[in-house]
Design goal:
The chain is built from three helices and no strands. By secondary structure, the chain is mostly helical. Helix 1 packs across helix 2.
Length: about 80
């Protein structure tokens, strides 16, 4: 497992990290790892407009997120 050293981290930011970690009953290292995982660890979701062979020209003016949300609401 890799080790990450952060230089010149402002004291105020470190204190905020310590407080946040303490509130969640974690070490600072665990809290930073979770924050980084949330920020960069998840793959970006694919957009309907980026998929090949699915008639993306028909979706050019459609917001995929809005379309999918509307579809899901219609199932209720």
């Amino acid at each position: 497992m890799a080790t990450l050293n952060v230089k010149k981290l402002p004291d105020a930011l470190y204190r905020k990290l310590q407080r946040r970690a303490r509130e969640r009953r974690r070490s600072v290292a665990q809290e930073v790892t979770l924050i980084l995982e949330e920020a960069v660890g998840r793959p970006e979701p694919l957009s309907i407009l980026e998929l090949r062979g699915l008639g993306k020209e028909a979706w050019r003016e459609v917001d995929a997120v809005v379309h999918v949300d509307a579809e899901r609401r219609s199932w209720d």
